[in-house]
Input
Amino acid sequence: GAGVSQSPSNKVTEKGKDVELRCDPISGHTALYWYRQSLGQGLEFLIYFQGNSAPDKSGLPSDRFSAERTGGSVSTLTIQRTQQEDSAVYLCASTQDRGFSETQYFGPGTRLLVL
Amino acid sequence: AQSVTQLGSHVSVSEGALVLLRCNYSSSVPPYLFWYVQYPNQGLQLLLKYTSAATLVKGINGFEAEFKKSETSFHLTKPSAHMSDAAEYFCAVSDAGGTSYGKLTFGQGTILTVHP
Output
């Protein structure tokens, strides 16, 4: 079946603009994660969604970052008033169920460049 | 809180040689440990995971890893490197006991180069 998909694959924006990144998880997967991969910080957890529970936003770096997951499926990560330090690859992952040992299936990522 | 340290940001081996990528973890609870591989411009793909069932874990593409509690290590090995193994490898620990089930904390990654 289809894997996790993300769009756009690349995004170039100007400092101060807002951007939206989209993630389509594997059909039927209940949990969804966003991570950020940058040269300086490596791979960092951003946010976690599980079913209808309140998301864990503990990894979001500032209040300019927000995310939602509609209908328990597609998720959108929004960055407002982008800064150059937001340049990174944003990865989405999903798991079939909730659990500490569940395999996370990653999408190809969105490469964001803030000029 | 969990943490992961990967020793060596770059490892270079000859084709056919042993591959050894080092990972040490810190966890206050019994850990769940993962190795992921990332090829250029792609997402992460699971190689193998430790979930306490067996200390020696076999994964895809001939890789295996051994969980050693006394050494807090989970090193990744492959007996004979292939050119196609060139990639970046990440060790990760799951957020056991937290509220984000399965949130991963990653090491800094190790870039594996394979020479002909």
